[in-house]
Amino acid sequence: MAIETMTSTPDQRGLKLARAILVVIVTGVVLWFAVRFLSEPSAFAGLPPTVSKLIQALIAIVVGVAGIWALFYAGNSIVEALPGRATQILRPYLFVLPAVAVVGLYLIYPTIGTVAQSFTVRPEGEAILYNYTEAFTDPDFLIILRNNVMWLIIVPAVAVVVGLVFAGLVDRIRLESLSKSFVFMPLAISFVGAAVIWQFVYAWKPEGQEQIGILNAFWVWVGGFLVDLGILESAEPVPWLLEMPTNNFALMAIMIWLQVGFAMVVLSAAIKGVPTELTEAARIDGATESQIFFRITIPSIKGALLVVYTTIAIAVLKVFDLIFVTTGGNLDSSVVAVEMVQQMFRFRNFGAAATMAVILLVAVIPIMIINLRNLREQGIGP
Amino acid sequence: MKNRTWLALLLVLGMVVAACGDGGSTDTTEPADDGGTTAPDDGDGGTTTPDDGGTTTPDDGAAGETGYEHLDQALAGDFDGTTVEVWAQWLPESVEATNFDAALQPFRDATGIDVNFQPTPDYETALQVAVDGGNAPDMAQIAQPGKMHQYADAGSLVALDFMNADKLSAEMTGAFFDLGHHNDTLYGVYYKTDVKSIVWYPVQAFADNGYEVPTTWDELIALSDQIIADGNGNPWCISIESQEADGWVATDWMEDILLRTAPPEIYEQWYNHEIPFNHPEVLEAADYMSDVWFTEDYAYGGNTYINATWIGETQDPMFAEGGPQCWMQKQAAWIPGFWGANRDFVADNPEAPQTEWPNVPGEDADYFYFPVIEEEFGTPALGAADMFVMFNDRPEVRALMEWLATPEGAQIWIEAGGFLSPLTTVPQEWYVYPNVGLSEIIANATTLGFDASDLMPAEVGAGTFWSGMIDWVAANGENTEEIFQEIEDSWPS
């Protein structure tokens, strides 16, 4: 943003400086009293807790917002009081630095702290890599890593393919927006909500009882016909979430269900962006629809495909709630994020939990790099 | 152009506020205080005087009445208008939460202290986060002694050395008094106990079929075979699915059997890991357990039912129309609230007395003592218990802690049912079914075993022991040695 240099006389500068210093002092005093007042419990005695909390929140918001505004204003005035060139150089930093500092405090500092913890929090006398050797020699953790790899390979691939097929098909039909919204809807459902819904889908009841899970109800019903026809010997309900490795695929299906909508929307937009001149020229040259789709559409939306793939891959690495709610990570269905929470909150192994966090972080980095590079190639990245 | 400057300023401001908001929200995990689950205020909260603890004056006459100093002061009205925040894992609106809140009311009425009870879902995590974030409640319930040791080690707890220890140790079952200690300092007061060594059975159906309550393990097995031979379905109702605590029912079985097949020292060495987790005595107990769990046709629905069915619904087939499909269920005294139609009824009418429930405890089904296996080890009982610990030291918190250590601290809950006190001074006539019998089981116990999985490190007791049992069930008990070796290997060094 271009900021006009204000030519000010030394007198005006002095006035501005004085005003700025006054604002700083007044703000400081007000903030000091506000904090004192808020931390004094007797200030609200006699009020119902809800009311006193509401008042506290209001004071905090008003004083906080006005205080920060005043400090920015004062800072701006001070910078403007400087000689013209210095003002121009310093002003952007004045506005950007606080935001950078806050991000650093809440993002970069904890990240560094976590990495440090993964090395330093260990039993006395153990080697510095203790947490890592423990993790990678634990057979349970190797199964967890195997699961994560399976999730990473299968979920984004299936979600992208299904989303692409749907986007390609839906492009031509009249009820496009309606059918799109149906596929898109799961995206609005939280992971915990989806997990609860799908627990009903996968529910198992002993043979002979009424199946309340739609999948088993359907399977027992169809299986019954097949048994009658002599095709199957028996059609018992399947405990989808209890059999290994079926449970892993059953869980992945939930994630795919959630992510297909996202893939479809982005890819559908990308397909619409393919110039019609290209497809029409191909059609005139006698290309079939599938040739157009595979030779023209897909190469043209390569960038969008990559974005969708990497975004879903990152979501997959973070998946936690789905598994925690459904199987709790039992029966070889756990992933790194679930294990991290268990280590942190149930077992209180801070070192092990930090190690899992670092492993996830390291796994995300290459995907982020691919993603950023791709965005930059398209000229929209940083 | 000046406008743009302001615009930029506002934008930056917005970013900072948003960033602050984001960061700030991470430590506001304390559940919203909506007051909905607490009893209404008694309205005299306007007279608060800040109390710094040191200025209380001795009372005239009332002192020494209860035997607890701060409680006496509180009853004299010294802390009128103060507030104490208490957390417990009993779910909001549950029978337990309702009863506990009701049980606190006499204290509120007598002292003017507003006890703000917050039943907290996802309890262990929520409490941990609150403690780590410096927002610990004044007082909290803890079910696992290991957690108490962790908090005490971390210096988060208030030592209860202000309490009259002689009085408490004289009035409380010794095992529970000892378990409240960390490094010889009292940190936790046990409030509520459970006896797990009981088996529920349908009374009328037993009588109709001429079945008798088994008193030995052999009789138990013989009865199981008899039920199958009579074509009466499966003898056992067993299942272990329990959301994020899947598997604990199985660990209870293991522990109860081990108490019956090995001397108490082995049990103690087992949870202290002075013997391997897969010690031969433990494997022997596992064999007894698989005789019930994995013998064909013994457990209703087989091993899939065990892993797939929520513990509140385990016994549904026992109350099936047309007679029981499964006949015996080993579960603690809380289970009658979940029988058949009781589940919905109790959820809608948490304060209705047991006698009004659709399936009346003691009539529709009753319990027998989980039989002795090897007579030389006497009649042990497996129990668990909830204690209260203090995170903040204020006189009114001390007073509440002392009050919870008196029989009156639980009287309303005891009389409502489903509550067994660790205090021996509770008048027997307060108890309702089935707790008279249960208090006898505790009194007659040659060994009182505390739930071992709660005493093991959490990695095992709430981790691999649970998940190992699930894997064991999934394999229909065919990999016993492998599973117990894996749990042994997982013991933290």
General description of the model:
- The complex is a heterodimer of chains A (about 375) and B (about 500).
- Chain A has two domains: about 10-120, no CATH class; about 135-205 and about 240-375, MetI-like fold (Orthogonal Bundle).
- Chain A is built from 15 helices and no strands.
- Chain A has helices spanning about 10-40, 50-80, 85-120, 130-135, 140-170, 175-185, 190-200, 215-230, 245-270, 275-285, 290-300, 300-315, 320-325, 335-345, 350-375.
- In chain A, helix 5 runs parallel beside helix 9 and helix 6 (about 175-185) packs antiparallel against helix 9 (about 245-270).
- The longest helix of chain A has about 35 residues, at about 85-120.
- Chain A starts with 9 loop residues before the first helix and ends in a 5-residue tail after the last helix.
- Mean pLDDT of chain A is about 85; it is low at about 1-5.
- Chain B is an alpha/beta fold.
- Chain B has two domains: about 65-195 and about 385-450, D-Maltodextrin-Binding Protein, domain 2; about 200-380 and about 450-490, 3-Layer(aba) Sandwich (D-Maltodextrin-Binding Protein, domain 2), CATH 3.40.190.10.
- Helices cover about 40% and strands about 10% of the residues of chain B.
- Chain B has 20 helices and twelve strands.
- Chain B has helices at about 1-25, 70-75, 95-110, 125-130, 145-155, 165-170, 175-180, 205-210, 215-230, 250-260, 265-270, 280-295, 300-310, 340-350, 395-405, 410-415, 435-445, 450-455, 460-475, 480-490, and strands at about 85-90, 115-120, 140, 180, 185, 190-195, 200, 235, 325-330, 365-370, 380-390, 450.
- In chain B, the strands form three sheets. In chain B, strands 1, 2, 3, 6, 11 and 12 form a six-stranded mixed beta sheet that branches. A four-stranded mixed beta sheet of chain B has the order 8-9-7-10. Chain B has a two-stranded antiparallel ribbon with strand order 4-5.
- Chain B starts with a helix and ends with a helix.
- Classes of the chains: A mainly alpha (about 375), B alpha/beta (about 500).
- The interface between A and B is large, with 48 and 56 residues.
